[in-house]
Amino acid sequence: MEDNKKTILVIDDEEVNLKLIEAMLIPMGYKVILYKSAKIAIQDINSINPDVILLDIMMPVMNGFEFLKKIKFIPEMRNVPVVMVTALNDVKSRVISLELGADDFLSKPIDKIELRARVKSLVKVKEHYDYIKNHNKILEQEVRKKTLEISESYRKLVAVNKELKNSLQNIVLMGFDLMSIYDESLAGHCKRVAVYASMITEKMNIKKELKQVIKIAALLHDIGLIGMPKNKRIEIEKNENVNENVNEELLQIYKNHPLAPIRAFQETEKYREVIDIIQDHHENIDGTGFPKGKLGNEIHTGAKIIALADYYDLQRYKTKKLKSEELLEYIELKVNTWFDKEIFEIFRGIILKEDPFSGIVKVYIENLKEGMTIAEPIVSIDTGVILLGPEITLDKEKLDKIKEYSSRFEIKNPIKVYKHS
Asked: Which sequence ranges are marked TM in the entry (predicted)?
């Protein structure tokens, strides 16, 4: 049981203070380690592996400030909460301590109730840090694993192309799975764009076969972004004009992403029109788009549909405070320059009736289910750490992790999810 106890390191050059604090904390079930010298404590710090440090400021040889400054350069100690023990009105020492990274203060003479409350709170904070640290290690392992899976999936995708010429569904699912492995939020975006695109085509005089082709193109329209760092993609997409404030090399990668599907599907003749649509989905009808700067009727109708749905979904995420009506008014300013007027009017009618992804409901953690899509981040109340970002669809693994975390720590509850998910 000793190994499971939380370790409190107390450093004070006065024996009476050490024994007093020890007597207050031992009944709480902590393992209390006492040091009269900060210099010796810093030498032993890694073997002590404390959960909380109580540190006196005024000590000979090495004072509390010097100790605090040194441990913040030790990677394993950066997240260990440090409580500085100060005189009641020693404001200057408190300011210096905060600048050096102290987490809390105790005033002399030490009050037993206050000491126990602060230590208990900080032990919980450290427990959160440890949980997140271990969780991040698992995530890093998963990222490495998924990176290998992406490479292997892409290799298989190209290798089996010839064998799957007549199996459209299998290739689509493989491509979508590839995106999900790389970035679930990107896959979620593509899925929503496909829903919007299908709703538009149902209102248009389009053959059934073309409707299916447009839906497939919508599902895969951003597959070319696989491999681009997620944070860089988001940085580019935040700019209204993708040519501004972006590294030139990254910009070229982004601008060429509509061309990428050819590499995977070029030998599959049945995909020719899907590729045409994907290539055109960033073209504007006034010729200001990319990658080729096509004009009006040069752009595939399916691409015009996806372009509008794509832009609406991205703006809906970026401007969450805007109502659907306000967002449509903003997009209308780009009609006849970026977007086709007829398609916009159809889309506006659909959204004004009911946007399938704008309705948000609150669901308590115990009622979360697989398939629900998170509308706002799931956040730890104690640390403010985002456990799961928005636009992520819950699967069994994510659901289990959230419920396991909530059994140990407090999560902001209820969770906001999309009504139609």
From this structure: none
